[in-house]
Amino acid sequence: MPSKKRPTPEKSKAEYGQAQRDRVARNQRIKSTAAANIGPPPPVDRKLFNRYRKSLWLFLTECFPESTSLSPLSLDHRKVIDRIESCLLKGGRDLNLMPRGFAKTSIMEGAAIWATGFGHRRFVLLLAATGAAAEASLDSIQKEIEENPILMKLFPGLCHPVQALAGISNRAASQHIDGKRTNIEWSAERCVFPTVRNFIGSGAIIWPRSIDAKGLRGMKFKNQGEQVRPDFCLADDLQDDESARSMTQTEKRLSILKKTVLPMGGHGKRLAIVVNGTIIEVEDLIDQLADPKRNPSWRTVKVGMMKSLPTNMKLWLEDYAQIRHSYDPDSNTDRERAENEANAFYLANQEAMDEGAEPTWVHCFFKDSEHSAIQHSLNLICDDGMDQFRSEYMNEPVRKEPSGVKLMTVAEIVAKTAAPVPGAHTVTAFIDVSEQVCYYQTWAWCLDGTGYELACGTYPDQKRPNFSHRDPPFPFSKLYTGTTESVLCQGLHDMLNGDKRGWLGILNMEWNIHGVACPVRLCGVDVNGNHNEALTNVLNASPKKVLLYPSIGRGVGAADCPMWRYPQYKKNGGVENWFPTIGKPGMIKGVMFCANSWKKRFHERLGLPAFTPGGLYLSPTAINLKMQAEHALAEFPTLVVADTQFGLQEMVEFKEIPNRPNHYLDTFVGNLVAASALGIGRMATGPPKPRRRPRTRYG
């Protein structure tokens, strides 16, 4: 029997191995090519196609059984959808103000599919407040295309290639139909519809972006040699709670919308842009867009949850609400008992409780725990209050008017600028201290109290006109090492006396005002907070401590003992709701002042007409005027009257508005107090006379 063939030499083994690998690779390519060929799509259902091509309303109400087709929409929905359709076909600018939970996002997503699938628009830009929100809308659109059987009948040229990917986006690069690539892109970042014969939406693009994303200006996409620009912008909820409360962010986003988004379609075809939103705060982005005087080119429709409220609100807000809220908060099950009893009360009195009420969408309520859209709306009012309901569900936020003092607008504050006049030679400074950055202002004063801002900024310098206080670009931690308190003390010391990086120091600054050299005469430093003693020690150790004082503001309210009744007030020579504080021997003297009283005075002085003695003027060269104005309006005044042991007392109390920084407001007020401490612009006023209690009559 012949012996087996011996192994080949090493070179032959290598050749054999390479041949084996080539054979496996060739077979794999054959299999991949076969798998990448998805074959032609099924035919279009022409009857459905012709039914929905010219009617967005029918498309939305019949083709999406899990969203816009789930419950019958209202006539107001019809009005909004018809306007979106008109805008899509002809171009234009539409603003739809709708309550939360009114299917506005589902309508927008369906409109994007309708516009691209039927070939009405080729490049849809999905805009939202954040990138995550925009990508969530794209994900919802993609899931409809992947899973909705009705869309397969309408757009097989789209749905067939998408479903062939089976959720694996890497397959898109090699996908073809009988040798012709589909050029599909299907990812979380954007989607490009496949190019398929007889599919009218071939090559359409849906691209999600946030309103403040980089690269938004000049957006375009090259598809098979053709340069495509956005021709349809769907903007859904362009603001969140934080940006709506920030005047600076509101103005920034409004500027992006007008200067970047609106011109991006070019001049070949009229851009269609639809903005859906809810007014969150007075003067927010949506509120300003809805103002026809400021933005006349926008067609606006406003839809509220209720067209009219019930006539007998007493039954709802007293009797019904008392039953609904009668549960034990410590019990896990008692809330359900209270809600069931409230439901029984409503059903027993439904005719009287519903009288005069007209809901916008009769199908908008929780089917498992409520009995009508009217009850659903009134539950929101009972649980969250009328102000919340008007803002979130009626697009009518309460436009509160301040009591006791008139506030200027941001635009009016920014316009209130002037350079110092001859005679404004007394200079003060004030520093508002925080753990990451300090804010400062310096002012020049005339003897009659007229004030002119000389400088305003931060230490360390943030190198920009606006920034987030919660996350400053250049915090103290980038300059110093150590504990929070030691870093803060090092920063304050260098801010006052100068540093090695070229900062001169507040106490060493000097201004030339009409030929007169004017150094800082007095500088206050806010030492309220956890680091009071350490900051006071920094001031006491300064070589120019004679120019310094620690400042403490007290929020004295109407129900509190007035400052002029404090024992130290008369003893230490207090005037105008401030008095000197005297600490341990050898320690620097400070100032304590009534914050509410001086904030009121600041707004009154700032609001004086031009050329009025005692007026305040910001620096015309300041680059952060808008940020200063926003800080100045970060607290809202309310006139409060309280019955105290001293009689009826009234006080304008200032409350912080959430998420609104107020540091420059503190520096404004601090400089006013510093000027008063130097005898500038003092008013000859004595203690206020307490109001008499109203006499009670019997019989």
In short:
Helices cover 36% and strands 18% of the residues.
Structural class based on helices, strands and sheet pairing: alpha/beta
- The whole-angstrom Rg is 34 Å
Question: Approximately how much helix is present in the residues?
Answer: 25-40%
The dominant shape is globular
Work out the number of β strands: 25
End-to-end Cα distance, whole Å, is: 138 Å
**How is the quaternary structure best described?**
single chain
User: Segments where pLDDT lies below 50 for 5+ residues?
Assistant: none
Task: Return the average pLDDT rounded to an integer.
Answer: 88
The biggest sheet, with number of strands, parallel, antiparallel or mixed sense and barrel status, is:
9 strands, mixed
Instruction: Determine the strand fraction and express it as a percent band.
Output: 15-25%
Helical segment count: 23
